[in-house]
Amino acid sequence: MLPLKGLKVLDFSHAADGPMCGFMLAEAGADVIKVEPLHGEPYCQGGVATAFFNANRNKRSLAIDLRKPEGLEIALKLAAGSDILLESFTPGTASNMGIGYEEISRINPRIIYCSISGFGQTGPYSQRPAYDPVTQAMSGFMAVTGEDGRQPVRVGPGVIGLGTAFIAAYGILLAVMMREKDGKSRYIDAAFFDTAIFFYELHHHRLLINRTFSATHGIKQPRLCPLPVLQSLRQVRFYRRHAGAFLARLLPGDQHGIPGKRHPLRHQCQEAGTPQ
Q1: Are residues 41 and 143 both part of a single domain?
Q2: Using omega within 30 degrees of 0 as the cis cutoff, is the peptide bond preceding 226 cis?
Q3: CATH number of 198's domain
Q4: What's this model's pTM, rounded to 2 decimal places?
Q5: 119 and 255 both lie in a single domain
Q6: Contacts of 25-30 spanning 24+ positions with Cβ under 8 A
């Protein structure tokens, strides 16, 4: 049995981030209903239709006009019987339509409600739209991506949007676990910009603590070996040929300071066929 079998999810999200979160829940066994406007989601039109299908696999679908009373009534009935609700409208829009957290939690006190946005539900930027390239640029992602001496570039895949989907799914699952203990609803606020800051990790620490700003280094990373040496195919081959011997010098013997225990990294090298 899949771990989320029996959970019902109502997915009002659009584009890629929210739907990918719903997709991950569906892959784990949840029954996900994707709710779209009557004219269809813009993301499924034109050349990006494949991305829409990819993010909405294993879901059921329903088209509703939430601006009409009968459409809102259908949505509320579905929400009353759901475990999880996903939405990615501009902050405040869901409440204006009558499907915000306050409205839904009144009719379903056990609902796990997740909002996904560019900059969160509060703050001066909350009403601004944000897609992956915007938050990559604003967070500093682009400033450390690219070749030495050249202009910063965007990371190719939509890592911020997909990362937000994963973080939202993680928060939802934690909320479901807590609900099993206290029976209470939870509200989750997942934002692109928060994900970008989280992924930027050591670069922000260096900026805040050392007051130094990272630059573009291409494939290199000044403080992490062996990245600085991976500059050509010849060097890559050299590294692959000598990695086992290099690690063996770092990890003499089979012990790790604990009698009877093999060093985990040496064991991994042996499994990978480089026991030397």
Answers
A1: yes
A2: yes
A3: 3.40.50.10540
A4: 0.75
A5: no
A6: 25/84, 25/169, 25/172, 26/57, 26/58, 26/59, 27/57, 27/58, 28/2, 28/3, 28/4, 29/1, 29/2, 29/3, 29/4, 29/5, 30/4, 30/5, 30/83, 30/84
Structure-token pair, residue 135:
């938050």
d(CA 214, CA 93): 38
In a domain, 16, yes or no: yes
Q: How many CB atoms lie within 10 A of CB 32?
A: 28
Look-up: residue for tokens 């499907």? Answer: 99
Q: Is residue 214 part of a domain?
A: no
DSSP helix/strand/coil, 150: coil
Q: Are 24 and 170 in contact (CB under 8 A)?
A: no
pLDDT per residue as tens digits for the range 18-40: 999 999 999 999 999 999 988 87
